[in-house]
Design brief:
The complex is a heterodimer of chains A (about 550) and B (about 375). With about 550 residues, chain A is of the alpha/beta class. Chain A is about 35% helix and about 30% strand. In chain A, the strands form 4 sheets. Chain A has a 6-stranded mixed β-sheet, with helices on both faces. In chain A, strand 8, helix 7 and strand 9 form a beta-alpha-beta unit. Chain A is globular, with a radius of gyration of 26 Å. Chain B is α+β, with helices and mostly antiparallel strands. Chain B has a 4-stranded antiparallel β-sheet with strand order 1-2-3-4. In chain B, helix 1 crosses helix 12 and helix 6 runs antiparallel to helix 7. The radius of gyration of chain B is 26 Å and the shape is elongated. The chains are: A alpha/beta (about 550), B alpha+beta (about 375). The interface between A and B is large, with 48 and 37 residues.
Chain lengths: ~550, ~375
């Protein structure tokens, strides 16, 4: 096979307020014709910058070194002007982005957006354009393609929008398609469909795909060859199968070993019941205008769910976005019913106390025993408070601890326990990495020594290797403090490695409930089967 | 344990760095700093008592400083020539002629008229003249008062007035904005309608009519305070809108929910978590609000409806420049215009630069 793209010594620097930052440090690789090359790495490894460097879609403050040489189809495109790049973009090289919600323009119809890229690079009559758009929509397998033409992006789901993006990308039969984490924002079953679509389109058009991802499962599923990137450098390149079976580089080994593994987990099945919910129903009522009249639209986010947790248990809740898993969790912690347009019904018990009808003030004594850790460690820490102030808050408001030294002592202890340097307590959140921030958030909850903690996707925003560390920390904390967890996640691999029992949710209802191992090895429900297949299967 | 990767600069040092790259902003900061300095040390900087009248030197023109006299004799102590009043033999209009025999010498860091500063009786001045001689750098007004001293004194009143208006405005704006955004629901709907009313109100007619019902013979200090309240009556609305928007987006963040999960009450969430996060936004609004208050105040005082003597404000000084004849014969009475211009430009430049600096998504580096 001949090389479509030859990159030699690619160096990209960013000129920032705090000086120059190296993003890509002289990397070289080739993309062969018709192959799928995966660029895999953790956040900040420079994989997106590399891809964008090829078609010069970098931020204004980026500097590409003079020693860089990028050859496309044998011609050196490194010295091309912006105008010449415009001719290549969308025609020879096209790109799909991560966020389907923001990569389509909300004020244009689907037809407008697809025909735009056709009109830029060729001359078509209106009728031809329409035919071409329709054909492209059929190719990306969108249901009812005829009616989609006049629709707007907000009328489509995330997966459908990503299909539109793909249709735009392949409109001019490009030689190279750059896919920058195209499935990260999608649910796992939708992700599988999109990957299948990309594979079939690739075979049809004989195009090369440069696939950027942090997800090793996807790398295994889709790529022929893989480049492992770390810190702006390529650590290892090779045939995907060979690298996964026999990694040579230390970093690759470390990365592969970071994938959450199955564990033998035990808890006392005859223990005391700590938290139970019976016939829980949560309804969101929103006012909408239907033909000029105000109507109340009710969405049943949690539909008649009952659950029971024993002390020391970890209950995994898995489901795709919109399945109501977060709402269910926050209902148990009495964190959703504040908005006036939400109805919560059902009985919640914490040990022997009924907590569902308590007022906010009456519920306060329970706060220190029931805690929550959020998904995004960037949004869950107040940027204007120091780490000490963040961890201290619970001690002041929930435990009413007046003695300064006692508080300090507690903060120091919990910081060392979660793996943070106690001497860094006067720093502010932005000085810490994502993983460290999540440790701060965990410390904020655990300093109160809670009996129960709701973990709402605590590892989803983190890199694989950090994810493993956080999971291990959570298991260690559970052992030390005999804490009970609910672990919400969309990632079955993570769930498998931490939870004893499992609930599979879809559209607010429980589809399957039981021992995690049993469900994962022997799913009964079709939806669960599909979910498990998408998450664990490598070749289909 | 992970290493502390990407140890960035703190937010404020980043803001400072971005700010210092903005030359116009620095210029604005210098202007504003100078204004505040001159307002605080107005008495020390003024060579003469701003209220002292001098019937011998009415509409005295600006005098230049000299080190050499007409015969090219050097004098280390700078001096200015006085004027004698004469008549144009053709038109009989009074003209001021330089009187080379009258040398008014300047003395630096010397004693002059007495003033009170922080409860102390002082009489030290940056410079003044001795033995009844006088130097007016930018001329004198219709009562023979030193324009320069009055501009310094006026900066104090003008800035103090702006400060009071902005404080009231900011307090109400933040209070309404944060509570409206945080509590939402019915309170939000009600307070937003009031805010809209305030925004829709024609401001100048309202101010004018409110000023008109203030009794003329009232104590000038009370008028000063009432004026501040009148000018604050509508201005809080814009700020409260902005703060509300910011609060609406902040309260959906997880750290607010986390605080709630820890058992924090509403008051604590507001002052501990919301307020610090809207401050940077408020600082910018304030620095852009000050010039508009200065302009409105000088407009009212110019009409004679605003600040009353014995207070001195720039607008009030311009009050005497209302007829064409005065401006034509004595153009230096317009000099407070430059003081207003500098302060408005200064605060605007400062506010713009601050706004650019606090926005983390703005790109300051261009190719």
């Amino acid at each position: 096979m001949t090389n479509l793209v030859e990159i030699e010594n690619l160096q990209v620097k960013f000129n920032t307020d705090s000086g120059e930052v190296n993003a890509v440090n002289g990397i070289s690789f080739n993309i062969k014709k018709g192959e799928t090359l995966a660029l895999v790495g953790e956040s900040g490894s420079g994989k997106s910058v590399t891809a964008r460097g090829i078609i010069r879609l970098l931020a204004e403050n980026a500097i590409i070194s003079d020693q860089t040489s990028i050859k496309f189809n044998g011609t050196n495109i490194n010295s091309y002007s912006e105008k010449e790049y415009q001719n290549i973009r969308g025609k020879n090289i096209s790109m799909i982005f991560q966020e389907p919600m923001s990569s389509l323009n909300p004020i244009y119809t689907i037809e407008n957006q697809i025909s735009e890229v056709l009109k830029i690079h060729g001359k078509f009559s209106d009728k031809e354009l329409k035919e071409k758009c329709l054909e492209l929509l059929k190719q990306v397998q969108i249901p009812e393609p005829e009616s989609r033409l006049s629709q707007y992006p907000h009328q489509l789901s995330g997966g459908q929008r990503q299909r539109i993006m793909i249709a735009i990308a392949i409109a001019n039969n490009p030689d190279l398609l750059i896919a920058d984490e195209p499935t990260t924002a999608l649910d796992v079953t939708v992700q599988t469909e999109i990957l299948k679509l990309l594979q079939s389109l690739q075979q049809k058009y004989q195009m090369s795909i440069l696939f950027i991802t942090h997800d090793l499962t996807i790398v295994r599923q889709i790529s022929d060859r893989v480049c492992v990137m770390y810190n702006g450098k390529i650590k290892e390149t090779g045939i995907t199968k060979e690298i996964f079976e026999n990694p040579k580089d230390d970093y690759t080994k470390h990365l592969l070993s970071s994938e959450p593994e199955e564990r033998d987990l035990h808890y006392d099945k005859n223990g005391r019941s700590i938290l139970s919910g019976e016939n829980l129903n949560v309804t969101f009522n929103t006012k909408v205008k239907v033909s000029g009249r105000n109507k109340v639209l009710s969405i049943n986010a949690v539909n008649n769910i009952s659950l029971d947790l024993k002390e020391g248990e970890t209950l995994g809740i898995v489901g795709e976005s919109g399945s109501g898993k977060t709402t269910l969790g926050q209902t148990l912690l009495r964190l959703v019913d504040r908005e006036s347009n939400t109805d919560v019904e059902g009985e919640i018990k914490f040990f022997d106390d009924r907590i569902d009808s308590l007022s906010r003030k009456q519920f306060k004594p329970f706060r220190n025993q029931m805690q929550i850790v959020f998904q995004d460690p960037y949004a869950s820490l107040n940027p204007r408070l120091s780490v000490k102030q963040i961890i201290e808050e619970g001690l002041i408001v929930a435990l009413n601890m007046k003695d300064k030294n006692e508080r300090l002592n507690k903060i120091e202890n919990i910081m060392s326990e979660v793996g943070l340097e106690p001497s860094s307590m006067l720093r502010f959140p932005h000085e810490f990495s994502g993983g460290q921030r999540q440790r701060i958030a965990i410390a904020r909850s655990f300093v109160l020594n809670p009996k129960f903690v709701l973990l709402d996707e605590p590892t989803s925003a983190l890199d694989l290797s950090i994810q493993k560390q956080i999971l291990e920390l959570l298991l260690q904390l559970q052992k030390n403090h005999k804490t009970t967890y609910i672990f919400i996640s969309h990632d079955l691999r993570v769930i498998r490695s931490i939870s004893h029992n499992l609930i599979v949710m879809k559209d607010g209802s429980i589809l399957e409930q039981g021992v995690a191992k049993n469900i994962l090895t022997n799913p009964q429900n079709d939806y669960t089967k599909n979910l498990i297949k998408s998450a664990f299967d490598i070749i289909y | 344990m992970e290493t502390t990767s990407n140890l960035q600069n703190s937010y404020f040092s980043l803001v400072r760095k971005r700010f210092l790259k903005n030359r116009v902003g620095i210029l604005g900061l210098i202007f504003v700093g100078f204004l505040i300095f001159s307002a605080v040390f107005a008495d020390f900087l003024s060579p003469y008592d701003p209220a002292a009248r001098d019937s011998d030197r009415v509409f005295y023109p600006p005098q230049g400083i000299h080190f050499f006299d007409e015969d090219n004799n050097f004098s280390l102590r700078p001096f200015a020539y006085g004027f004698t009043e004469g008549f144009d033999p053709d038109t009989y209009l009074p003209i001021m002629e330089i009187d080379y025999t009258q040398k008014n010498y300047l003395y630096f860091f010397t004693r002059g008229w007495e003033y009170k500063f922080l409860g102390l009786n002082l009489d030290l001045h940056l410079f003044t003249t001795k033995d009844g001689s006088k130097v007016f750098f930018i001329g004198s007004d219709a009562y023979g008062r030193d324009m320069l001293s009055r501009i310094f004194k006026g900066s104090r009143v003008t800035l103090l007035f702006a400060l009071i208006v902005v404080s009231i405005t900011t307090f109400i704006g933040i209070l309404v904005g944060i509570s409206s955004g945080y509590f939402s629901g019915k309170f939000d709907i009600a307070s937003q309608r009031v805010t809209e009313l305030a925004l829709a109100f024609p401001d100048l007619p309202l101010y004018l009519s409110l000023v008109a019902i203030l009794p003329r013979q009232m104590d000038p200090f009370l008028i000063f305070i009432f004026m501040a309240f009148i000018l604050s009556s509508l201005r809080w609305a814009q700020l409260s809108r902005e703060v509300r928007g910011k609060t609406l987006s902040l309260r959906r963040l997880d750290y607010i929910k986390a605080a709630e999960a820890l058992g924090s009450n509403d008051l604590r969430i507001i002052y501990r978590h919301l307020l610090p996060n809207v401050t940077s936004h408020v600082i910018v609004s304030v620095s852009l609000l000050i010039p508009s208050v200065i302009l409105t105040e000088s407009f009212f005082s110019f009409l004679g409806l605003g600040i009353q003597s014995p207070f001195v404000s720039w607008g009030l000084q311009l009050n005497s420049a209302q007829d064409m004849r005065t401006i034509g014969s004595y153009p230096w009475v317009l000099s407070p215009v430059f003081a207003i211009l500098i302060s408005v430009l200064g605060f605007n430049a400062l506010g713009d630069a601050l706004r650019d600096a606090i926005d983390p998504y703005a790109t300051t580096t261009k190719k």
